[in-house]
Prior knowledge:
The complex is a heterodimer.
Chain A: H1 25-41, H2 48-73, H3 81-97, H4 102-125, H5 131-150, E1 155-156, H6 160-167, E2 169-170, E3 173-174, H7 175-193, H8 195-205, H9 207-212, H10 217-243, E4 245-246, H11 254-265, H12 276-295, H13 301-321
Antiparallel strand pairs in A: 1-4, 2-3
Helix pairs in contact in A: 1-12, 2-7, 2-8, 2-10, 2-11, 2-12, 3-4, 3-5, 3-10, 4-10, 6-10, 7-8, 7-10, 8-10, 11-12, 11-13, 12-13
Chain B: E1 5-16, E2 19-30, E3 34-38, H1 45-53, E4 60-65, E5 68-70, H2 75-80, E6 83-86, H3 98-102, E7 109-112, E8 115-118, H4 120-133, H5 150-161, E9 168-172, H6 180-195, E10 199-203, H7 207-213, E11 216-221, E12 224-229, H8 236-245
Parallel strand pairs in B: 3-10, 3-11, 6-9, 9-10
Antiparallel strand pairs in B: 1-2, 1-4, 4-5, 7-8, 11-12
Amino acid sequence: MSVSKTNVKTGAAGRADGAFTFEGLGITAVLLVIIVVFSFVNPRFFAIENFLNILTQAAPFIIMAVGMTFVITAAGIDLSVGSILALSSVIGFDFMTSGGHPVIGVAIIIVVAVALGVLNGVLVAYLVIPPFIATLATMVSLRGLALLHSAGTMHYGLPEAVAFLGQGKVLGLPMPVLIALLAALFGYWLLNFTKFGVYCRALGGNKEALRLTGVSVKRIEVLVYGFMGLMVGLGGLVMIARIDSTQATIGTASEIHVIAAVIIGGTSLFGGKGTIYGSVAGAILLAMVANALVIGGADFFWQLVVTGIIVLFAVLIGNLREGRVSMAKLPLFGRTKS
Amino acid sequence: MEAKELLKLANLNKWYDGLHALQDVSLTIGEGEVVALVGDNGAGKSTLVKIISGAQGSDEGEIYLKGKPVTVSSPKDASNLGIAALHQSLGLVGSLNVFENIFLGREETRSIGPIKVLDKKKMRERAIELLGELAIDVPRLGVPVLSMSGGQRQCVAISRLLLDQVNLILMDEPMAALGVAEGQKVLDLIERLKEKGVSVLIISHNLEHVFSIADRIAVLKNGRMVGTVSPKNSSRSDVVRMITTGEGAGPEGAAQ
């Protein structure tokens, strides 16, 4: 056993859980390496303006990744985030451009997104449909509803106050970056310092143990997907405000982007363990790679190719770290052993 | 030697689809007494423990706690009566740390305005106190219990039962998956529970463990109580004979 043994009786009270360990070290190192490499390859990459640009582009995904961290930590998955984003944004946008009050319009986006998240939660918790299937189904159906609502229509022309959320700056910081930062801090607090956070981790780690303590597991599951919906609403709001437009196809394939950010960050796909810092770093990493590809003049579609490959590597690294596979048993690597 | 009576089961009966799983089973457990429940597979040991823990109801019979008749129709009833069950491998969350596990579902919180935040300091201090009282040796409290040994994990699982006022702890094969040294940790812990006046009803197939820890051994066969014996006055072969033949012990061996 690698853990050093100390009798708790002799441990100083209150500090018994020992030294602060920074689990995000790996992803931080990867980010720094990428920054250095990309900067050498193309000096245009290394500029404050470009970094703010990257963060602004990453912002909606950071926000959604905060929500997805809870879902995956609770051993769930949500494939419907892109469709929830589309449906809630076309409804809210349409309301605002038809003369509705901006505050009500924003509220509509958030409420619709939360309600759809809760719907996912109810399907998973009460109808006991596996999360992968439940959210695959809502992904398709909700996209269908978004298309029924606005197929072929490009909505644009947000009220100024709402556009500010995507385009404004406060103290030199773009609003999307500021909102993402606040969402991440809130998520960090929620995961680590509240009962809800502990229950999410317990739900993913050992659902039966949590149930035996008398905690309503179903209620927690609904809340997890509801919170995911809230983050999709917020992320979607930032996204449409930045580009001042939306359409029924917005957010297509964003689920893979958001899930990728969370997994790259080190949250276990098998549940029980999650890290908000890692998810934020993962979302930034993906945005950086995309940005570098754009600066390097690569076709947009390469982004999809690269994202998929990064996800596979992230899961592989996670499996190696958690001991699910060993290097010796991997094809290619293992041959030397046998 | 005469312990005050804590729990008394009188003529419990249980049927499963016509199978008479428990037949007029009676048993008393004294305060601070360790009673081992032994018998072959299908003898009714787990059924009996489930009935006391509230996980299952009995079809007939009475349960008395400190002389008063009680009904235990749910695990919640049981916990209100100070009866706690140790669940095989189900009780802990591997990815949570020691004190998060101990307090799971009963977290200490403090209020910042209308918002409730986990009081980690308080939980950590109470966990240290609790583990210290039971002399449970664990690595740092902040590590996931997954990284601990089986014996340490079982001790943490038992200690979390003591967070509430508890009179009786039910254990179904608590040493089953543990090695010798790890099993010994659990046996030592049971000894200390006894010193603290907590009663234990333990199911075990390991007669060596049973003889080293139990004050009395109750033998079940085919849903019937064969009898109870004291490990001091009877040998292992006596107990094995009771388990296999279902015949009661001689008068010198009977503890009741």
